[in-house]
Design goal:
alpha/beta, 6-stranded parallel sheet, 7 helices, 14% strand, binds flavin mononucleotide
């Protein structure tokens, strides 16, 4: 949609929680809007990705971008992959002025390190930058049940303005497939990135 053409680049980090299909679909829907994406993928996320989608991602960063583009059917030139220790990446510095970052799926381990500012890899450094610069940070968390440790971290981050979006698809829109459940979550994430691709199902709309 034309209104999204000038959307600034978005950082998408995948960590090792269950929910790789949410990330792949989010990448697809954002890239279809011609939005440039910076992709960060933890080692555990690769394992989960293979388990959940039988997608065996290469370790070479250029190949990685092409493989994700092929898998999702989008233009590879919109995707830039960064390594876990790629401190020269623009996402590592506040001066790059990135506006939006999503961690999807977000593991409890990454949650803890984000909440405590551990910054031991590029994902945590990038989230730390978003926090210090007061930019839009969205965490799509997944674990069940949740301990007081998890809940405490979520509460503290929420008080700082972080958008806590648990991967909890609803059933009130009568999903017919797993894709419908995935899109339910991706619709919610897109709302918090101010991206409207026209496919978002909204309660109360006539269609
Ligand atoms: C198949 C699979 C599913 C997992 N699901 C979850 C999950 O839903 N939530 C979670 O917090 N950790 C989950 N884990 C464990 C994390 O991957 C593990 O804690 C890892 O250290 C997280 O590292 P990262 O945050 O750097 O990606 C899962 C691991 C595997 C292999």
């Amino acid at each position: 949609m034309s209104e999204n053409k000038k959307h600034s680049p978005i950082i998408i980090a995948m960590t090792g929680a269950s929910g790789a299909p949410y990330a792949l679909r989010l990448i697809q829907r954002l890239a279809q809007q011609n939005i440039q994406l910076h992709l960060l993928i933890s080692d555990a996320a690769r394992v989960v990705l293979q388990q959940e989608s039988e997608f065996n991602l290469s370790s070479n960063l250029d190949d990685m971008a092409k493989e994700i583009a092929d898998f999702t059917g989008v233009d590879a030139s919109l995707l830039t992959c960064w390594g876990n220790k790629d401190w020269m990446s623009p996402v590592a510095s506040g001066s790059a002025d990135m506006q939006d970052m999503v961690v999807v799926p977000c593991s409890m381990g990454s949650l803890a390190r984000i909440a405590t500012g551990a910054s031991s890899n590029l994902i945590e450094r990038a989230t730390d930058v978003m926090l210090k610069e007061r930019k839009n940070l969205v965490l799509v968390l997944r674990e069940t049940p949740l301990s007081e440790i998890h809940l405490g971290h979520m509460y503290n981050l929420s008080k700082m303005g972080v958008r806590i979006i648990p991967a909890m698809p609803g059933f009130y829109h009568q999903p017919k497939s797993i894709d419908d459940l995935v899109d339910f979550m991706v619709d919610r994430i897109l709302d918090h990135l101010n991206v409207d691709d026209g496919a978002n199902i909204r309660w109360g709309s006539k269609e």
